[in-house]
Amino acid sequence: MINASEIAAAAQSYEADIVGFLRDLVAIPAESSHEGPVIQRIRKEMEQAGFDEIRIDPMGNILGRIGSGKTVIMMDSHTDTVGVGDPKEWAWDPYQGKVEDGYVYGRGAGDQRAGMASMVYAAKIIKDLGLLGDYTLWMVGSVQEEDCDGLAWVYILKEDGIRPDCVLVTEPTGLRIYRGQRGRMEIEVHLRGRSCHASAPERGDNPIYKMSRLVEEVEKLNTRLRDDPFLGKGTIAVTEIRSLSPSLCAVPGACSIHLDRRLTAGETKESAVAEVKALAGAAGGKRAELAEPASASRLTGYVVGGISPLGQRRQLPTFVDESALSYPTVYVSGGRRGLDIELAPHDLLRLTRARSAALAR
Q: 183-289 maps to which CATH number?
């Protein structure tokens, strides 16, 4: 018979240890694909908690096991976080793990460092109180969720070979049980214009102006997307805007936006793309392209959000706008979000076997 008050008392007795562990996790920066140090800290705590088995798979996920019964239960907390953005927006050090009025504040404290701290000590309490039974419990610290949510679990199922009967994800839900989540898409929209000198903008066709109208339409589209009583409303948001111009004194020849699209029940990939294509047409554009994150990661070896033309697993055909050749150096992705590499354009062509072309027309 499980005694809930006894479990609560055990958890309370470990409060200082749980908070200390949580603060240690918050203090370790771990953006996607850079989770190594936080994984090692989790391993140390699992060892101290008395896990029966601890493994780190080739992808970098950490899996801790207690018990060896028939029913396989897995709990998950992703170990990566997003960056801190503008440090000036923080009222305290985001990697400090500030404790105030019973709360821990910091980057990733809720999403999902607290989940991992709770999981590790839940396993310890299960062993302390003799609550093991005919089940196997795996506590999983998954990687790369922020950039490629779901990819780590595809690996766990296919490569690690563990087939759970039940999975509990410890994403913050206000302690409510959620039984599903919306789907996710990444969509890119590219609008072409005609570049010219900025002193005579009427000679060109500025795609930024067209894109600004499309961005307004995206904002409106978000208000009328399908709603579902179980999963909630579908959403769409602009998360990045880019333009391609030969210089800051020239009208750009191309403009692109990146969209984050969350699908609710009744929405499909095809319907979502059709909605955006209709907006692009209304704004004077001609096409919208859907990014395939899993395919892009598989072909290049990079995580979506940091795909570089350099060092790809399978070098894809690469094209560089001919205007880039007029610059002494250009910047390209270095293989992770926020990391750029500066190099001469001719070196870029040579290293990637790229061809120059008039892309920004």
A: 3.30.70.360
Distances (CA, A) of 314 to 121, 301, 345: 43, 8, 21
Q: Is the pLDDT of residue 283 over 80?
A: no
* Helix or strand run (H / E) with residue 320: strand 319-321
Closest CA to 187 of 146, 218, 141: 218
Q: In whole angstroms, give the CA distance from residue 164 to residue 181.
A: 19
**186-212 pLDDT, tens per residue?**
999 988 899 999 999 999 999 999 999
Distance CA 178, CA 80 (A): 22
Q: 209 burial class (0-12, 13-18, 19+ CB within 10 angstroms)?
A: middle
Query: Where are the extended beta strands (E) located within 165-278?
Result: 166-169, 183-192, 196-197, 235-244, 250-251, 254-263
CATH classification of 292-361, choosing from 3.40.50.300, 3.30.565.10, 3.30.750.24, 3.90.960.10?
3.90.960.10
H/E element, 73: strand 71-78
Here the tokens at position 21 are: 């562990």
| Angle at CA of residue 20, ends 17 and 23, nearest 5° | 150
Rounded to two decimals, the pTM is 0.73
Could you state, in order of their start, the residue ranges of all structural domains in the chain?
4-169, 183-289, 292-361
User: Which top CATH class is 4-169?
Assistant: alpha beta
357 vs 260, residue with greater confidence: 260
pLDDT at 289: 57
Tens digits of per-residue pLDDT, 333-354?
Answer: 888 776 888 899 888 988 888 7
Q: What is the pLDDT of residue 351?
A: 87
User: For residues 319 and 355, is the Cβ–Cβ distance under 8 A?
Assistant: yes
Q: Looking at the annotation, which residues are catalytic? A: 80, 145
Tell me which amino acid residue 191 is. Answer: L
Determine phi and psi for 297, rounding to 5 degrees.
Answer: -65, -40
Asked if residue 104 has pLDDT above 50, the reply is yes
Q: What single DSSP character describes residue 134?
A: S
Do 183-289 and 292-361 agree at the fold level?
A: no
Contact between 118 and 10 (Cβ < 8 Å): no
Q: Tell me which residue has tokens 């759970």.
A: 164
